[in-house]
Amino acid sequence: MHVEPSPRGEVIGPVLRRTDGAVDNRRKAPKKGSNMTDLTVSGMTCGHCKKAVEEALSSVDGVTSVDVDLDAGRAKVEGGNLDALLAAVAEEGYTAAPA
Ligand SMILES: [Cu+2]
Fold first, then answer.
1. Domain that holds residue 67
2. Which residue numbers in the chain have pLDDT < 50?
3. Residue 10 phi, psi (nearest 5)
4. N or C: which end of the chain has fewer CB within 10 A?
5. Residues with CB under 5 A from ligand 1 (ion)
6. 3-class secondary-structure state, position 42
7. Cα(77) to centroid of ligand 1, in Å?
8. What's the mean per-residue pLDDT of the chain?
9. Number of domains present in the structure of the chain
């Protein structure tokens, strides 16, 4: 026997009802992280070093956030120009490179 799929309209009911605008699945890209630079910083041995690097990076034009990890020898910088960041760290006597 030939069976046809149910014609449209047969199942229309509460199931198909929608709540308009109730769901928004789009995820907005976080603004933070849009201009992050990961650096390796060598030469840091203590809290003073860390502070010096932090201040050097913070003083670079356009930098809005600096996070230096002494133990890992890394720095995360938001904003700023890479060359300027590297130069600022070098000026303090440490060596930075893109991670
Ligand atoms: Cu030190």
1. 46-99
2. 29-30, 33
3. -70, -35
4. N
5. 45-46, 48-49
6. strand
7. 20
8. 83
9. 1
